[in-house]
Amino acid sequence: MDVSLPELPFPLRTYGPDGHWTHEDGVLTGWAGARQDRFVPPTGDGVEPAADAPRLLGAPEGDFQLIARVTVGFNWAFDAGALYVQVGERAWAKLCLEYSPDVATVCTVVTRGHSDDANSFTVQGSSVWLRVSRTGRAFAFHASRDGRRWTFVRLFTLGEEKETGAALVGFMTQSPMGEGCVVTYDHLEFRPDWPDDLRDGS
Asked: Gene3D superfamilies, per this entry (predicted)?
């Protein structure tokens, strides 16, 4: 299913399980079902398929920043809402607000065949601002408690240059241990550029 949001200059398409995505009054809402996740365990042997979760993704051109305030209806450990980028079936990354496992935490996963997993900082409540940026093959993750001062979380590359040019970016929901959760994204913003400085809070 294709979805157009007035805040974004590119169309989005649904991937994975049905996320029951809706958009109303500037708020995007998605649902994760029971035991839905996007993670390839690093302890695996490399032949198991990647787990899947609802995703809503599009393909912006050139440099960009995608920003949203993410609010998660936490019920179970590792329930999360995420901004997500993908250049291949085993080359993708997510910037999450996650119940990890009993406190809201900004965390990241970068998958190059297998997934890694890293926590950043904890959050009071169930909302945080997330930002994913791209220039060339490089991606940057930032998070903010107030939408004004940004904390640098991660800088990385994904895939080959020819793949990264067709990168998909957007939104993902997950509930790997539970019976599902709802995630909302508001204050959506798209900027056609790369941040001037990754570490100065801007």
From this structure: 2.60.120.200
Please say whether the beta carbons of 168 and 10 come within 8 A: no
Spell out a b/e string for 71-97, using b for 16 or more CB atoms within 10 Å of the CB, else e. Answer: bbbbebebbbbbbbbbbbebbbbbbbb
What DSSP element (H or E) covers 163? helix 161-164
5 within 8 A of 23, measured Cβ to Cβ: yes
> Cα(201)–Cα(134) distance, rounded to whole angstroms?
17
* CA atoms of 107 and 80, how far apart (whole Å): 10
Q: Which of 82, 79, 35, 74 is nearest to 55 (CA)?
A: 82
Cα 190 from chain centroid? 14
On the question of pLDDT at 189 being above 80, the answer is yes
Domain 11-191 has CATH 2.60.120.200: yes
pTM summary value? 0.94
Show the tokens assigned to 68. Answer: 């949203």
Rounded Cα distance, 43 and 78, in Å = 19
Contacts of 124 by beta carbon, 8 Å cutoff, 6+ apart: 104
* CA 1 – CA 50 distance, rounded (Å): 22
Contact 104, 96 (CB under 8 A): no
3-class state of residue 130 by DSSP:
strand
